[in-house]
């Protein structure tokens, strides 16, 4: 009888333990749901873009449980919002503006007096482009969108809808069929820059971005930083290595690959002439922060036009064009040739994490690598926001949607914090 009683007590204990563990699991699942959670319905019952139930402050502070949640979300099949979703949203512009908060953007006096211009060269993922614009949006800024002529009809329609709803967003008047590493990428930016100069907005600086970029600073912070430049330009500009010199020493040709929409740049054995006007070559990035005075000079300079023509048959001319021009003596915001190299880590323009430099110059990528470039994960948010750069590349909601959502949240918090200390006015964008 005693043995039977002990066996019964043991069974009751095990059963209680199982029930307790089951209850804990259910409570955990309830409190830490990782499924997609769309924003609560607006008064007009319109839904916007996919968001997730995550504590971004805990992600920033690297709390293991919340970082673990972000990893679970990533392992699920994340379905990126389609171009059609943005098309549907922009059918009714008033609802689009309300749903995305463009009608709640506030401005300080400092921001009003210092408008910025943006050149966005994009070709896919319309929702990501809109999220990028929303993150850097200010009613007194001006935004030029250049979409690739190869882009899908849905993407083009989404960009047209975006430009139709926002009065300070427009589509470039001339558009290129962009091919990797060719002059077409550079011309896409030049087309936007030309249109931006004709705009009535007297912007102070222009910033170029691509669809997988995202800001690390709010508009008010950018304005404050750019005012400190006092007319100087900010971009990468370094002396070329022997390997990089090969990009503009030989003639390159754009060759067809299977179809007219697939072309590749191929090197020939034909040597090029030296750069015109005795220009000394520098290399850098395709991305820049340039003053209005500098762009006005570029638009009217014979030397620049000759250099552009000379660059037509080079490899990735966008990666030497701007880096060389800012070193020309006498240009507005000149970087003297005697000045040391300005690397991508010294220039605050854009933070890119290269695979081969991880654990040497910066921590490992917590997302995925594509062609040696890190697509960021949520665990890198604190590092990104504190490193000191103004923008970063690359982000992809299919790789990690949490990092984008949390950066949006943190930027909104910072914008409110900075504006709370200043006199602000709010108006529709």
UniProtKB/TrEMBL annotation:
UniProt keyword annotations, A-Z: Glycoprotein, Glycosyltransferase, Membrane, Signal-anchor, Transferase, Transmembrane, Transmembrane helix
InterPro entries: Glyco_trans_14
Principal localisation: Golgi
Single Gene Ontology MF annotation: acetylglucosaminyltransferase activity
Metabolic or biological pathway: Protein modification; protein glycosylation
Any one annotated GO CC term: Golgi membrane
Sections of the chain in a coiled coil: none
Annotated compartments: Golgi apparatus membrane
Pfam short name (any one): Branch
Membrane topology: Single-pass type II membrane protein
Family (UniProt): Belongs to the glycosyltransferase 14 family.
PANTHER family from the UniProt entry: BETA-1,3-GALACTOSYL-O-GLYCOSYL-GLYCOPROTEIN BETA-1,6-N-ACETYLGLUCOSAMINYLTRANSFERASE 4, GLYCOSYLTRANSFERASE 14 FAMILY MEMBER
Entry protein name: Beta-1,3-galactosyl-O-glycosyl-glycoprotein beta-1,6-N-acetylglucosaminyltransferase 4-like
